[in-house]
Amino acid sequence: MVTDATRETNRTETEEQANCAAYNGAARGRRTVIEPPGRGISLDLGELWRYRDLLTLLVWRDISANYRQSVIGYGWAVLRPTISAAIFTLIFGRVAGLPSDGSPYLIFSFCALLPWMYFAGALTASTASVVTSSTLLTKVYFPRLLLPLAPAVTGLVDLGIQFLVLLTLMACYGIAPGWSMTTVPLFVLAAAICATSVGLWLTALNVKYRDVGHTVPFLVQAWMWMTPIVYSSNMIPDGWRSLYGLNPMVGVVEGFRWAILGRVAPDWTMMAVSLGMMLALLAGGLYYFRRTEVKFADII
Q: Under 8 Å CB-to-CB from 192, ≥6 apart: which residues?
């Protein structure tokens, strides 16, 4: 004899089986398939935008750590270029008598120091970014490109402070900016691209060869003297300018100086060579970084 309680129990079991079948069918529709990577390298730069919140956190972490427990704090962003420009003015402007293209030597050298110090700081921090974030790298997934990219964004804070100091010095010398000042953001972007492109190469190499980290300070120092900071690129013979332009920072520094002062137009052929070299380094750096990042966690 079948009672009402028995019918209720059977109906409940039937409903549970139907729900389980529906859940299993839905689960089969959401099946995740993990496949080995192909031979090609996918840059997937759109992934950086999806993880933009993490990039913001990394930038704020670096900003807060730069001058932590520092008495002067962000005053170092003012002192470093000011003292360097004063020393260059004394030695190269007064003693050596190097030409400054008709501008006060202090302003001439300060204009070049701004993009150079930004580049040098971002490159140095970018090179060590993956190694210093090894604990984060081995615990959670995120685009590894964010690590060398964050210093390029962080350095913009110091650059902004130093740019205000430059405008103050120009006002003291009675130098009024011209229309070329509107192109400054383009050359700041070029400096960021240059720092990132070289940093991608050095970051990936530093994971495998720690000697790279020790080489970077010497590389930056030697690179500075091959860049027109204390001297004008007009001192370079015409036949050597295209070769000289293979240094990507030549175009950045000369362009930034022209944008600020607007007096002597740069050699646009040399600028084009620098830009082409910069883009080649960026493309090669992205490819090499993406190719080697799958082994970072194992090596570190």
A: 118, 122, 152, 153, 156
CB hemisphere CA count around 178 (13 angstroms): 10
CA distances, 132 to each of 52, 123, 129, 191, 250 (Å): 20, 14, 5, 24, 30
Work out the number of other CB atoms within 10 angstroms of the CB of residue 200.
25
Q: Which residues contact 32 (CB under 8 A, 6 or more apart)?
A: none
Of 28, 137, 97, 102, give the one whose Cα is nearest residue 257. Answer: 102
- How far, rounded to the nearest angstrom, does the alpha carbon of residue 101 sit from its chain's CA centroid? 30
Distance CA 240, CA 195 (A): 24
Q: Which letter, b or e, does each residue of 170-195 get, where b requires 16 or more Cβ atoms within 10 Å of its Cβ?
A: beeeebebeeeeeebeebbebbbbbb
- Cβ proximity of 198 and 125 under 8 Å: no
pLDDT tens for the 300 residues of the chain, in order: 445 444 444 444 454 454 444 444 444 445 544 454 455 556 667 788 888 898 899 899 888 887 776 767 778 889 999 999 999 999 999 999 999 988 999 999 999 999 999 999 999 999 999 888 888 887 888 888 999 999 999 999 999 999 999 999 999 999 988 898 999 999 999 999 999 999 999 999 998 888 898 999 999 999 999 999 999 998 999 889 989 999 999 999 999 999 999 877 888 899 999 999 999 999 999 999 988 888 887 777
Distance CA 11, CA 255 (A): 80
Q: Which two tokens stand for residue 160?
A: 């902004």
Distance CA 244, CA 227 (A): 9
**Rounded to whole angstroms, what are the CA distances from 212 to 208, 263, 289?**
9, 39, 15
